[in-house]
Structure formats: C-alpha cells, structure tokens
Design brief:
The complex is a heterotrimer.
Chain A (H helix, E strand, L loop, with lengths): L1 H19 L9 E5 L8 E5 L6 H17 L2 E6 L6 H13 L4 E4 L4 H13 L4 E4 L10 E4 L2 H15 L4 E7 L5 H17 L3 E3 L3 E2 L4 H14 L3 E6 L2 H14 L5 E5 L3 H9 L4 E5 L1 H17 L6 E3 L2 E5 L6 H4 L5
Parallel strand pairs in A: 2-3, 2-4, 4-5, 5-6, 6-13, 7-8, 7-9, 7-10, 10-11, 11-12
Antiparallel strand pairs in A: 1-3, 12-14
Helix pairs in contact in A: 2-10, 3-4, 5-6, 7-8
Chain B lengths: L11 H10 L1 H20 L6 H26 L7 H18 L4 H24 L5 H20 L4 E2 L4 H8 L10 H19 L1 H11 L1 H6 L4 H27 L1 E2 L7 H11 L11 H20 L4 H26 L2
Antiparallel strand pairs in B: 1-2
Helix pairs in contact in B: 2-13, 2-14, 3-8, 3-9, 3-11, 3-12, 3-13, 4-5, 4-6, 4-11, 5-6, 5-11, 7-8, 7-11, 8-9, 9-11, 12-13, 12-14
Chain C lengths: L11 E10 L2 E11 L4 E5 L6 H8 L7 E6 L2 E3 L4 H7 L1 E4 L11 H5 L14 H15 L14 H14 L4 E5 L7 H15 L4 E5 L3 H7 L2 E6 L2 E7 L5 H9 L18 E9 L7 E6 L3 E6 L5 H8 L7 E6 L2 E3 L4 H6 L2 E4 L3 H5 L6 H6 L3 H4 L1 E2 L2 E2 L1 H14 L16 H14 L4 E5 L7 H16 L3 E5 L3 H7 L2 E6 L2 E7 L5 H8 L7 H6 L2 H6 L5 H9 L2
Parallel strand pairs in C: 3-8, 3-9, 6-7, 7-8, 13-20, 13-21, 16-19, 19-20
Antiparallel strand pairs in C: 1-2, 1-4, 4-5, 9-10, 11-12, 11-14, 14-15, 17-18, 21-22
Helix pairs in contact in C: 14-15
The chains are: A alpha/beta, B mainly alpha, C alpha/beta.
C-alpha cells in the first residue's frame, strides 16, 4: 500500500514539475571561496548566474585573481542552470545573512531579486551588478558586456557572410533573462534595420541545453530547405547549432555564435561556425572585484562599466590578444 | 458465471481481454500515427528521410532512460536520479576513456556498469533500507548531480582525441546511408529490454512485485533481492544513456541532464505503463518516447512558438493518462 | 410479518435485465420485486450476479437491456449521486466514510448547512445530525471522528446517512460481515424499528442463520439468473442453500482418512514471537489435516506467518523430516516446500492484475519454468491449464486476469500455485472465507484429496463446524499459546470452545473461578452463535 501512495505522490510530482516547466535541478550548484587569511580583509560575496559553465568559471578566475591582488576575500557561487531563479534567490539571501562588505550579483530575474536589493540597500551593503546586470536602482554600478551591441556585431558579420540575403534561424539560450532578450533583440534589431533582405525565422530557445539546441537546429534545417545561416546566442546554443549542422549533413551554411568554449573553437577552426563574439569574462570578474573595492572605500565610479567584446574567427583566433579571452 | 470449466484458449473472451489490456498501447500507437499524419500533412518538410532520422536520433537518450526506468515503474517504484545519474555516467565515461585512457570498449562497458552501480545503490536503499523510491532516488539525483560536477571539476570532458567514441552515436553502420548508429543501438536495446521483461524470470518478478509485493514475498520469492536486481538492471540503461549523450555531443557535460528524468517518466506514462505498478511494456515506452520527440520536432517544423510546445506536451500527457484511466475502469468489470 | 403489498405495483421492480462483460454473461433476464416495507434478502453464490445488480441499481453500470421501475415510474439511473437523489441508497461492505471527519460531517457531506455565503456552520450541522441520531435512537456522538468508532458504529453512520436522504430503497451488502452477535442484534433492531416502515431493504448476506431473524422474503439468484423468491417463515435454510448451489448439500460430513499411525513430518517446538506467540509446540503428520481453532486474536495466523518466515521469531525450532531447519523469510519456507495461503487473498495471495498463468506458476517460475533466466511460457501455460482443469477453476482461459475471477476460483488459483510448487506442507488460513457454499464444498473436497495424497495440511478456520468436519486433529489456541490439541473423535464444539476460552496463564481451577469454564458448561444457544463467536474479527 505504501508503494501505491508513493506512486501517487510521484505522479503528482511529475505533473507539477512537468507543467511548471521546471527543470528539477534543485542543487548541484557550486561555490568556492578564496580564503585570504585574516577576517579583517573586506569580504565580497559574488552570486553569478551559473557555475559549471566555462564562461562562469572564467569570470570566477578573473574575480579570484583580482581579489588576491587587492587583498580581498571572496566567495563565488551560482545555480546549476540558468533557469534556477529560486535557487539563486536563496543563495543571495544566504549571502546577505553573512553580512559581506559588498555583493557582486548577476540576476537571473531582476524582479525576483528586488526585495533583496532593498534589503542590501538598507543594510548599506553595496551591490555590484555584473553580466546581464540587475534591473534596479540599488547597484552602484554594472560591469557587463553590452549584449545588444555585441549581438548587433554578430548580426553584421552574418549579414556580410550571406551577402545580405537569405533565411536564418535563431537559437537563443533563454527567453526570460536579460542577456537572452538583449542578445536576441540586439541581433534582430540590427538585421531589420540594416539588412532587410535577410529573413529571420521565429527565435527558438535552447535553455542552454546543448542536445536540445542541436535538435532545434536540425528541425529548422528540415523545415526550411532554403535555410542559409544560423545564430547561436551563447556557448551551448552555438555549439548546439554546430552539432546540428554537422548531424544534418547540410553544407554551405553560415553560422555565427557567442562566447567561446572548446567545441565552439573547434567548430570555428573546422569551418562549421564562421565566427563568434567573445565577451571578456575574465575582465568581468576583475571589474566586479575592482568596483566592489571602490564601493567599500566610498570612491565614486560610473554607472556602467563596459567590459567589452570582440569578434573572432579563423583569421584571428590565434591572435594572443583574442586567445587570452577565449576559454576552452 | 455461465462459463463452463472446459478451457479453450482460443475463446474470444480471452482474446478480447488481451486486446483490451493492450488498448493503451494501441491508443498510443494510434496517437503516434495521427500526430505523424498531421505533421506530414501540415508541412512538406516533415516527412523527409533526414528529418525522420533526426527525429529518431533525438529520441535516443530519453528513449534509453525511459526503457530502463520502465522496469522500475512497473514495480510501482520511481527513479528521479535518471537525468543526473546519466550526467554522472557521461562524466565517468570521460574519466575512463579520456583521463585514464582506457581502451574504448572497456571504458564504455565501465561507464554502463557505473550506471548499474547507481541503480544498485538505489535498489539497496529501496529494498533493504525501506526508503520510499521517490525519496531514495531524489537523494540519488542530488548526489549524482553533485558528484558529476565534483569529478569533472565543473568542466566538460572532451573526447576529441578519441574520434571513435563519437562514432558510437553519430557513425553510420549502414554504408552509404546517413542513419546514425545511435538509433540502431536504441532499437537493439529496446528489443533486449522487451525480451528481458517478457521472457525472463527478472521480467516476470518485475510484474509480480508491481502487482502485489506482499503476495510475491509470501509466494516464496525474495522480493528484496529481486528489487535490487531490477534497480541495478535499470541502472545499466542510465549508464548507456550517459555514453550515448556524451558520444553524440563529443563531450561529457556535467551540468546537462537534470529534467531528463521527468521527460523519461513522461514517455513511460504516455506509453501506458502504470505508476501504480504491475502494468507496462517496452513497446509502449518506445512509442511514448517517439510521441514526445515527434511532437517536439513537428511543432518546431510547423513553427509553433516554443512556449506552446510545452503546453501541448503537457496536454498530451494528461490525455494519455486519462485514456489509461478509462481503460482501467473498463476492465475492472 | 410480511406486509401485504399496497397494490399490484411493488416499490421497486426490475425486469428483463441483461448485462454482459467481455467473455462473461453477468446477468441474464434478471427480475426482482421489492415490496414496500419489507426486508428482502438477496442470496446467491459469489459470482451469481449480486454485485452486478448493485452496481446497476446505483448507476455504476448501465444494463445492456431491461428496465427498472420505482413506484411504477421507469428509472434511468446515471450515477450513484443520482441514485441517491432518486431514493436508492447503498451501503457497501467497505464503508464510504471519511475517517478524519466527524459523524455529523460524514452524514451531511456535500450538503453542509451554510452559515452565510461561503462559510460552513458547524453548529447547524451538528444540530441537524443530532436530530437525526435522536430520531433513530443511535448511540452516536455526532462530534466524534469516524476513525474512533467501532465498525458497528461506523455502519450506523452509514445507515443514518442513507436515511437522511429519505431513501426509499436501502441496499446493504453483507452488513454483518464484521459484526459480533450483540452488534448484529442491534443492527437488526435498528432495521426493524426505523428502517422498515418507510424504507424497503435489500439485504445481501452469506449468513443463512440471520436471514430468519431479519428477512421477510428471500430471492435466490444463481449464475446471473433469477431462481426463486420464497417466504422466509415457510422455508428452511437447507432449501435456500439447495436453490443457491443447485444441488443438495452433504450434511454432517465427518473428517476422512483419520489415522494416528503416520510418521511425523514437521515439528514446531517452543515457538515465540515478540508480540504474541509463547511457547507454541506441535507436530504435523504426513497426510494429516491439522485444524487450528481459537478466538480472534488467539494467534493462529501469527503461527502460520512465523512458520513461513513472514514474521520474525524470537525463539523456537522447526524440524522437517527429523532435521532441524531455519526459516528466515518466505523464500526459505518455499525452498522447504512449505506453502502459505493467506486469509487475505487479495493482499497476500494473488497478483490481481496478472493472468491466471502468472499466478499459478509464480512460486515455481525459477525452478521449474526457466532456463538461463529465460522463462518457458508454453510449459507454464500447459501447467496452468492442467491445474485449472484439475481444480475445476472457472475461467474463460488461463489468460484471464485474476481479478475477474470469483472468490472461490481465486482461492483455487492460490491453491494451484502451491501445488505447482509441489509443497508437502500447505497452510490454509481461512480457506473458505468469502466463498459461497458450493465452492466451499469443492475446497473441502480438495483438502481431503490433498491429504489423501500424503500432503500435510494446517487449516486455520474461524468456523467451528468447518474445523470439526475437516480436521484429523485440532489445535486450539488462546492468547498466543496452544491450550489443547484434540483428536477428531474427542472434538466437539463445546470442547473446542473450552480450550479456546482458557486463560493460558492460569490453571483450570482459576478459570473455573472466573466463571469461564462454568459458562462453557451452560448450554450453548445454537451452533450459529458459536460459529459467529469464533469468527469475529
């Protein structure tokens, strides 16, 4: 009988979870702390949007090296996937409870974090937003890539590769986060304005699942025999696009990606991807810690710190300046 | 009852009964045909060889997990550690093949056995420690997710030095035809699982335990032992799924996989296996998995916004379970 | 006693009803008449069609053909709720009560008085329930939670609930199955005083003795067909039983093949468990039927469960053919060819959702029907067919699902399972519980046949006449101990009762002092009462 009850619970849970469209990842987040000796050092708690992905590891490395340089103590944590909004909020709550000297925060969902931002403000803990930023007046500054501008750069390159015409598919990593919408809108706005002969299909969303991105790409190729190009808006999406193109066996397609990662770099080298935009993740990490230290000392700083982005392709991938920004 | 004592297995009553108990499968299969026909009609690009193979291809991982967990679900259990367990096995395949540079075949076998180990632990927790399956496998889900990240140091392991590994999934065994090996492997696995479920002692006890665990125990069958065997056997499929996904992607992705368990369970349920145990079939599960991937693919092909794809999938699951309920009421006459 | 019907038209008339399920014709041209203010007993073997009738009347099934008339108006019942509104209430064997709610909440579930808008008025609810309880003179506290009530009181709640709907027809399915004598008397009193005048009752029962006390007329059905309706006062129960089974009943049967010179096959010494059993010691001979008698809770089932390893033992030894054996779990018992047929077939005996073949071969799959882990389906089916024929199991085929079989046939399937396993020792726990009279005789015949083949049988039964007619020897238990072992020749209802009520901690003299033995000396008011006393659970 107990077994049956479990069955009922399980059934209920399956439906609740399926219908809520939740990914059921409730843990597996990571956190690391760089211990820095005495507790009199300023402590900066950094909550990122992810942890295990290469990009976030690079941000973490940047933050850690800057912290060592400035003599600060940091913790760096993030939820396992970029849909775990609730888990990120829990992490932020816990971080606030530890009364850090400053907080670095990349919001998965700015609205969900709003009350906590107010709490940080009233406890006089400065907040440094990074990556996609936080939609709030609380953060002292935002250290981020200008995603819209970066996506527009991608659009420009793809348009050039296609000589301004053809049908293209968009594989976007997320439809709710700011980085997702910025990279989608920045790309689409530029295309509409500057390259009207390129026909953009409705964007599809991969939820940063490589296998899913590959399946989507293959579906788009099957549905649109005249497809000419693709845009993948982050590491998993771009690698998925490359995977999907390879698996479909279709040749002559032009595809551009975003971020880096070993598979993406390989795809660019082998020509499946024409090129990609790299952010400066290490730079983002450094900027967060730098800005946090300034805020702790009460120095003034600009509202937005553009950490920059670069287009890279086969021709400049081995350029040391670019190579330094790429992660494998 | 007016039925005489004389036994005649060809009586229509027996046949009708059997047909009825297969109704869910027929419904699921009919549903698959209808969905397939609909998309073929709606878009000329749906029914092409390449799209057909890509649909099958995208069924492989979920299908493998679903086939394995069919056994557990027939025992009235549940396995929530499928998705992250798969990630862990994927990572382990990377450890064995890339980091330790073991021979490819050995590495693959070890990764599959590692899945069996996950199942074994689940089985021990459920059968010996009497932890409800939902809880035991929920805990395993977390443990596996954490271990996958720890062991991989949160970075993907790439198999680019071992190209033969990828060909397990993406290679073409049939010469001259772009038909991925993964699909062939899924078909073989499905046949093996169906044979085990229908023709072996393990399968027979799977149904018995799911129908009535206490009666099975009183009948002199060591149900604890067999539950452990069943979970372990089911775990092998988790290992295989881990191998298949990392072979497809050419990398072991430690963060991928959570959420896959629910898709696999959904496929099993659509295929007519009862979460209350005692009933189910591999064919049904395969059809269930196909329905999921045909729907995913077809809805993308006819450009249904992605938000609505999930809504439709949810409704399909409800419809499948509803028809199952109708059947249940029909038979309990 | 019987009230003359008010007119030619009875209260409820059913005519020409047919109902089929795949492979089974459940009802054929069924008809039935219920008069105003009567208690009509509906009797028939299991599978005769009683429960199908009930489900038709409550709208759970729809008939293939046929008509229902209530007060001369044609009925079209679409569901239980509507049946209730039409005035047809059913009290099932398993009550439809919510154990966490109070008596009042249960009675008026779905019809709660509102205290304005969306809020409930608990006070109005309790007052309304109290009024009803008072009118029926029921010993119930309307505020008590149902889970705290005895089965008898829960049944009263069901009756009160049915009457609160102004039921014209009340159908009761085996209402006394779980009641003791006093409770049965109370129930009958309740029916006579409060139900009957306004509400006619269809009373379904297996207990022949109580029909005399409560029913006015009795309708017998058999194999889905109407047989006859008789006036209870002018009919002997033997006649009713004969109509039910369609043949005469062997009466006063005696145990067969009693011999005391056979070798001892299995011995139990000083068996104890944590909860109940103390120092249980007995021998079982080859080819013997050893009856286990005792009051409810005496520990008979516990002995069986301990022997097959289903429950843990704290002390005791088992000796099989002179060799001491250990039994840690049912798998061990099966290995030593000891089979246990539980009193609760559905819970411990059968795989209800599986077919007859799977059930019959379950125990022996590994050793007899498999090679290299693969099962051999053809031999399995052949074996199942053989036993279906041998035990005369009524089923359309061996592919039939077990839950579609009647109780007696399900029991035979469980027996077949252990015979296929080739057990030497078979423990039957209440082998005829819930089985109709005809099937009982078949089970008795089967037990005798098995004993005749040299198999040793332990038969646990709460029906004293059954124990007496079947057992070669009778072990009587009381409070976890065996208080006496009687030979068939010495055993009478009185002597068994004597040992069954013996307090094992005290000697006979103490028992006499307490009036226990003296009570036994007094004439026992009829076999039926004794049987019930023993059967109460």
């Amino acid at each position: 009988m107990r077994r049956k009850t479990i069955g009922v619970i399980a059934a209920a849970a399956v439906f609740a979870m399926t219908l809520a469209g939740c990914t059921a990842g409730s843990s597996g987040s990571g956190s690391t702390s760089t211990s820095g000796g005495s507790s009199s050092e300023p402590y900066i708690a950094i909550i990122s949007k992810g942890f295990s992905q290469q990009f976030w590891q690079a941000v973490k490395n940047g933050a850690e090296s800057e912290a060592t340089k400035e003599g600060a103590r940091i913790t760096f944590e993030g939820p396992p996937t970029e849909s775990d909004v609730e888990q990120q909020i829990t992490m932020l709550t816990n971080a606030l409870a530890k009364k850090p000297d400053a907080i670095g925060f990349a919001a998965l969902d700015s609205k969900a974090a709003a009350p906590l931002m107010e709490q940080a403000k009233s406890s006089k803990i400065p907040v440094i937003a990074f990556d996609s930023g936080v939609d709030s007046t609380v953060p002292v500054t935002t250290a981020a890539t200008d995603n819209k501008a970066a996506a527009a750069e991608d659009a420009k390159h793809l348009s050039e590769l296609l000589n301004g015409k053809g049908t293209i598919g968009l594989v976007i990593h997320d439809q709710t986060s700011k980085s997702g919408t910025d990279r989608r809108d920045g790309f689409m706005d530029w295309m509409k304005k500057n390259s009207p002969d390129i026909k953009m299909l409705d964007p599809q969303y991969s939820n940063s699942d490589l296998a899913k991105a590959a399946d989507i790409t293959k579906s788009i190729i099957a549905a649109n025999p005249d497809i000419a190009g693709f845009y993948g808006s982050n590491e998993a999406s771009a690698e998925g696009v490359a995977k999907g193109i390879q698996e479909s066996g279709k040749t002559g397609l032009k595809a551009v990606g975003f971020d880096s990662g070993k598979a993406q770099i390989d795809a660019i080298n082998s020509g499946v991807l024409s090129g990609s935009i790299t952010q400066n993740p290490v730079g983002i990490g450094e900027a967060v810690v730098k800005a946090a230290m300034k805020a702790i000392k009460g120095e003034s700083q600009p509202k937005f710190i553009d950490t920059g982005f670069f287009w890279y392709d086969k021709t400049n991938i081995d350029d040391p300046k670019i190579k330094a920004l790429l992660y494998q | 009852m007016t039925t005489p004592t004389v036994i005649d297995q060809k009586r229509p009553g027996g046949l009708a009964n059997r047909l009825r108990s297969r109704l869910q499968q027929f419904l699921a299969f009919g549903g698959l045909i209808v969905i397939f026909a609909f998309f073929s009609f709606a878009s000329p690009n749906f029914l092409t060889f390449s799209n057909f193979t890509s649909m099958l291809f995208s069924t492989v991982v979920i299908g493998t997990l679903a086939i394995g967990t069919t056994f557990v679900i027939i025992t009235a259990g549940i396995d929530l550690s499928l998705g992250t367990g798969m990630s862990l096995c994927a990572v382990m395949s990377g450890v064995f093949i890339v980091n330790w540079q073991l021979p490819l075949l050995l590495g693959v076998v070890l990764a599959i056995l590692f899945g069996g180990l996950i199942g074994l632990v689940n089985g021990i927790n459920v059968a010996l420690l009497k932890i409800p399956p939902f809880i035991a496998t929920l805990a395993m889900m977390l443990v596996a997710q954490g271990l996958a990240l720890v062991i991989s140091k949160s970075t993907p392991i790439y198999f680019d030095k071992v190209p033969a590994f990828s060909s397990i999934s993406t290679g073409n065994l049939i010469p001259g035809l772009n038909f991925p090996n993964a699909v062939i492997i899924l078909a073989i696995v499905a046949v093996i699982a169906a044979v085990v479920l229908n023709k072996t002692v393990l399968g027979r006890y799977t149904y018995s335990i799911g129908s009535n665990e206490e009666a099975t125990a009183i009948s002199g069958i060591n149900t604890r032992k067999w539950l452990i065997v069943i979970y372990t056997f089911s775990g092998l499929f988790i290992g295989l799924a881990g191998v298949m996904i990392s072979a497809r992607l050419g990398s072991a992705q430690p963060a991928l996989g959570s959420g896959y368990e629910l898709q696999a369970i959904a496929a099993v349920v659509i295929g007519g296996t009862s979460l209350f145990g005692g009933k189910g079939s591999i064919l049904g599960t395969v059809i269930g998995a196909l329905i999921m991937s045909v729907l995913n693919n077809g809805l993308q092909i006819i450009s249904v916004p992605q938000e609505w794809q999930n809504v439709i999938l949810g409704i399909v699951i409800l419809a499948a379970v509803y028809t199952d309920n109708i059947r249940r009421r029909g038979v309990s006459a | 006693m019987t009230q003359t019907p008010a007119g030619p038209e009875p209260l409820l008339r059913i005519s020409g009803v047919n109902k089929s399920f795949p492979g089974v014709k459940a009802l054929a041209d069924m008809h039935l008449e219920l008069r105003r203010g009567e208690v009509l007993a509906l009797v028939g073997e299991n599978g005769a069609g009683k429960s199908t009738m009930m489900k038709l009347l409550s709208g759970i099934y729809t008939p293939d053909s046929g008509e229902f008339f209530l007060n001369g108006t044609k009925l079209h019942v679409t569901g239980p709720r509507q049946a209730q509104e039409l005035g047809i209430s059913i009290i099932h064997q398993e009550f439809n009560l919510m154990s966490d709610l109070t008596v009042a909440q249960n009675i008026f579930i779905g019809r709660e008085p509102r205290g304005g808008g969306f809020f409930l008025s608990e006070r109005a609810l309790n007052a309304k329930a109290q009024e009803l309880i008072d009118r029926l003179q029921l010993p119930l506290n309307v505020r008590a939670k149902v889970e705290t009530l005895t089965v008898a009181k829960q049944q009263m709640v069901e009756i009160a609930k049915a009457l609160s709907y102004d039921a014209k027809v009340l159908i009761m399915d085996e209402p006394t199955a779980a009641l003791n004598d006093a409770e049965v008397a109370t129930l009958h009193e309740l029916i006579r005083r409060f139900v009957k005048p306004e509400t006619a009752v269809i009373y379904i029962s297996h207990r022949m003795d109580e029909l005399k006390s409560i029913a006015d007329r009795v309708t017998v059905i058999r194999d889905g067909q109407y047989v006859d309706t008789l006036d209870v006062q002018q009919t002997s129960m033997k006649e009713v039983i004969a109509l039910m089974v369609g043949r005469g009943l062997a009466s006063d049967a005696k145990p067969v093949g009693v011999r005391d010179d056979r070798e001892i096959l299995f011995s139990v010494r000083a068996l104890s468990t944590k909860d109940l059993l103390r120092n249980v010691t007995f021998d079982l001979r080859a080819g013997e039927i050893l009856g286990f008698a005792g009051l409810m809770g005496a520990g008979r089932t516990e002995v069986a469960r301990a022997i097959v390893g289903a429950d843990k033992i704290t002390a005791g030894t088992f000796t099989l053919r002179g060799k001491q054996i250990t039994i840690a779990n049912p798998a061990d018992a099966a290995k030593h060819r000891i089979g246990y047929l539980s009193e609760d077939r559905k819970r411990f005996g059968l795989l209800l959702e599986q077919d007859v073949t799977a059930n019959i071969t379950l125990s022996a799959v590994m050793e007899r029907f498999s090679a290299w882990g693969f099962i051999k389906i053809k031999p399995m089916k052949a074996k199942a067919r053989q036993y279906v024929e041998m035990l005369r199991i009524k089923t359309p085929s061996v592919d039939q699902t077990a839950k579609n079989l009647s109780g007696g046939n399900q029991q035979k399937v469980v027996v077949a399972k252990w015979l296929v396993k080739d057990c030497d020792i078979l423990i039957f726990d209440e082998p005829t519980r819930g089985i109709d009279v005809g099937a009982k005789e078949e089970i008795y015949g089967l037990l005798n046949e098995l004993a005749g083949q040299g198999k040793s049988i332990i038969m646990i039964s709460s029906e004293l006449p059954e124990v007496l007619r079947m057992s070669h020897r009778i072990a009587v238990m009381s409070e976890g101990r065996i208080t006496g072992i009687l030979d068939a020749a010495d055993a009478t209802q009185e002597s068994v009762m004597h040992f069954a009520t013996l307090r094992p901690n005290e000697n006979l003299a103490d028992a006499r002092e307490l009036g226990l033995v003296d009570a036994l000396a007094a004439p026992i008011p009829g076999a039926g009462a004794v049987q019930r006393g023993l059967g109460d659970k």
